[in-house]
Amino acid sequence: MKIRSRLFHSLIGAGLIAGLALSPALADQLRLRAEAVIDGDTVRLGHLIEGLEKGADIAVFRAPAPGARGTIRADRVISAAREMGIDGIDADGLKVISITRPGRTISRNDLQALIGRAFAERGAKGDLDVILDDHHAARTVDIARTDALKVTNLARDTASGRFEVKVALAGATTGETWTLTGSIVETRDVVVPVSDLERGDALQAKDLTIIKRPANTVGTDVVTAMNDLIGMIPRRVLKSGEPVRQTDIAKPILVEKNQLVSVVYASKGLSLTMRGRAQANGAMGETIRIQNPQSKRFVEGMVTGPAQITIFAAPAPAATLADATTPPRR
């Protein structure tokens, strides 16, 4: 990028170099720099000429954009200095001077995070996924601008999710704001398989991962918590990356129909164990019927483990004051 002189003629017109009158002695050690690093909007003589003291702050060229590089022809620098009354500069064989202006990059992710926080602070609910429109690229500002980013204005169409915001650095002037557009999507966590999973095998934590999906695409029957899937049995093949619905899974069968099981009778301070035959399949927490092989009688109990049924005795009714009152004599 070639850097053009736009400022120094106006500086001459304004009389900013009046009385400069450098003596030849001051120019004895002046030499062009091969490279210069700029931290502002203008290139000054002191950036380009080594050994220059008086007049070093005079702006003569516009600097490259932050994060960019450019060049200035050596003869143009010498000519600009001569018009300022500075002579005797050693070009040292240089044809061009390389100009670098370091920049601070503000990424799309930085901008999206800032916008998400701004909407959350203003009452937006749920997990918000901010998506800038594709034409908005990362921004680069001068390396010296360490100010925090701020949102100065924001507007959102809640029906479509579209937004328009104005963003600036905290110390920026009115003309330094950026207008950004995009959309905000409310998202929910959804548990999905990391690979295709066959039916019949109990799900493990390593088989699953959590992703975000637009909330309006997540049905009420979709499983959203990892713990609700671990240990469950797929009823069908589960596809990688696809949400799992309640109807796709079942609790593991711990008791099978006609299986001989341990039947535990649990009452306060008492526990009896006997054998029984299950009359149906049962998963953890389900209630099924069991037959006593000797008496042939049927009872109901809860599946509490592999091949184990527990019958919980109903608690005795609490005594009342009426129960303790002695009836009157006749």
Main sheet summary: 5 strands, antiparallel
Provide the gyration radius in Å: 40 Å
What percentage of residues falls in helices of 4 or more residues? 10-25%
**Beta-strand content estimate:** 35-45%
Class computed from helices, strands and strand pairing: mainly beta
> Using DSSP, what is the number of strands?
23
Which CATH-level-2 architecture of the largest domain? Sandwich
Tell the overall outline.
rod-shaped
The N- and C-terminal alpha carbons lie at a distance of 119 Å
Keywords:
330 residues, mainly beta, eubacterium ventriosum atcc fold, Type Iii Antifreeze Protein Isoform Hplc 12, 4 domains, 5-stranded antiparallel beta sheet, 5-stranded mixed beta barrel, 23 strands, rod-shaped
How would you characterize this protein structure?
With 330 residues, the protein is mainly beta. It has 4 domains: 8-101, eubacterium ventriosum atcc fold, CATH 2.60.480; 106-186, no CATH class; 188-250, Antifreeze-like/N-acetylneuraminic acid synthase C-terminal domain (Type Iii Antifreeze Protein Isoform Hplc 12, Alpha-Beta Complex); 253-312, Roll (SH3 type barrels). Helices cover 12% and strands 37% of the residues. The protein contains 5 helices and 23 strands. The chain has helices at residues 8-13, 45-48, 74-83, 108-121, 321-324; strands at residues 31-32, 35-37, 42-44, 49-50, 59-62, 69-73, 96-100, 103-106, 127-132, 139-142, 149-156, 162-169, 178-193, 208-214, 233-234, 249-250, 253-255, 260-267, 270-278, 282-283, 287-291, 298-305, 308-312. The strands form 8 sheets. Strands 9, 11, 12, 13 and 14 form a 5-stranded antiparallel beta sheet that branches. Strands 18-19-21-22-23 form a 5-stranded mixed barrel. Strands 2-7-6 form a 3-stranded mixed beta sheet. A hairpin with a 2-residue loop joins strand 18 (260-267) and strand 19. The longest helix is centred in the middle third of the chain and has 14 residues, at 108-121. It is rod-shaped. The relative contact order is 0.08. The model is unreliable at 4-27 (pLDDT under 50).
